[in-house]
Structures are given as structure tokens and as C-alpha cells.
Design goal:
Radius of gyration: 14 Å
Number of domains: 1
Structural class: alpha+beta
Number of strands: 4
Shape: globular
């Protein structure tokens, strides 16, 4: 069984930049979890979800998603376009749920 995937998107239009800029941790479902502005991809990973640096976030993700792995966008076949589409679908599902609760 494959592990649930959490993706780190970096600076740049394709989400694969590794230098100075914003980094976002996104679940494979498209849910944006955490963000961090950083000068380096390696620091960003620890600051976003490092098990020893952010044990609170690690624990929360473990409880929510079970076994997971953290990948940088571009480490596998996931693309910025697909992840962005999933994010939009996730946002729309939140809006639909909120609208349903109002009625």
C-alpha cells in the first residue's frame, strides 16, 4: 500500500523553485496545509513539516493521513497543474459544505 503524499511546492510558476521564496505543504488531495517563506528548500522542508523541527505538525498529519511521505513537487509524476486543480476542487468542496450548512 502506498503512503499518503504531502507535496512541498516552491517559488515560481511551476511550483518547483528551490531558492528564496514561499513554500507551501499541500496534501495530495489539494488541501493547502502550511506555508513558509524561506531562503532554501532544505530549510523549508524542516520548517514546514520536519519531524524534529515541527513535531506538532508531524503528529497532526500522522493522525489525519496515517503513513505519509513528503515530496517536493517534481520528485514524482505529480504536476503543478494537477495539484492546483485538486486544490480548486478542495476549495469548492469547502464552499459547498458551508453553503449546505446555511440552508
Amino acid at each position: 500500500m502506498s503512503k499518503f503524499k504531502l507535496y512541498i511546492t516552491g517559488p515560481g510558476e511551476d511550483g518547483m523553485g528551490r531558492g528564496d521564496g514561499p513554500y507551501v505543504l499541500v496534501a495530495e488531495t489539494g488541501e493547502a496545509l502550511y506555508s513558509h517563506y524561506c531562503s532554501s528548500a532544505s530549510y523549508a522542508q524542516n520548517d514546514l513539516i520536519g519531524e524534529t523541527y515541527r513535531p506538532d505538525r508531524w503528529k497532526e498529519c500522522k493522525e489525519r493521513f496515517g503513513d505519509f511521505e513528503v515530496l517536493f513537487l517534481g520528485d514524482d509524476d505529480m504536476t503543478h497543474e494537477v495539484l492546483h486543480k485538486r486544490n480548486q476542487e478542495w476549495i469548492n468542496s469547502i464552499k459547498e459544505n458551508e453553503n449546505g450548512k446555511e440552508n
